[in-house]
Design a protein that fits this description.
By secondary structure, the protein is α+β, with helices and mostly antiparallel strands. The protein is built from three helices and four strands, in the order H-E-E-H-E-E-H. A four-stranded antiparallel beta sheet has the order 1-2-4-3.
Length: about 180
Amino acid sequence: MVCINLMPWRARRQRQQWQRWRRLCGLMLALTIFAMQGGYWQQRLNDRRAVLLSFWPGAQQDAAALHDRTLAAQQRLDQLRQAQQKQQLQQQDLSRWLGFIQRLSAEIPPDIWLNGLKKDRQGVSLKGFSRSVAELHHLRDRLRQLQEIPSIKLGALRSEPSVGVSFSLQLTLGNQEQSNE
């Protein structure tokens, strides 16, 4: 009989089995760690989602409140723009009216005194006193030269001993002066 030494073969086989077991245990350990780590990260993701979802109703309310405030601010801005536009139109009307009054005052002779000036839809009513009727006719002729006044109507004339003649004139203004009343 031949004596065969099986020790190296057994040792090699045991080493291979031991390496297989180590690989299998390492693989199982890695799979376990991977599964646990995946669960851990999934739990963290779920926690973050829960935190975000807890803020969601408040964020929606804040967004709705911000939207309402934005609409209110926009409406207020529109109102202010309309008011500004209205004021600009009034300012233009007042500057035209001021120009007309300045041209009118330049045409009034020194012997005529006005004690009333009223603007209405038809035009302007003037009331005042004159030393003579001739001065009043002179005023009427000078006012007819102004382009803004297409017609002049002489109203009441009264002779008053202390001041002369009391009069009233109705001036019809052109479209330029009546456009924005």
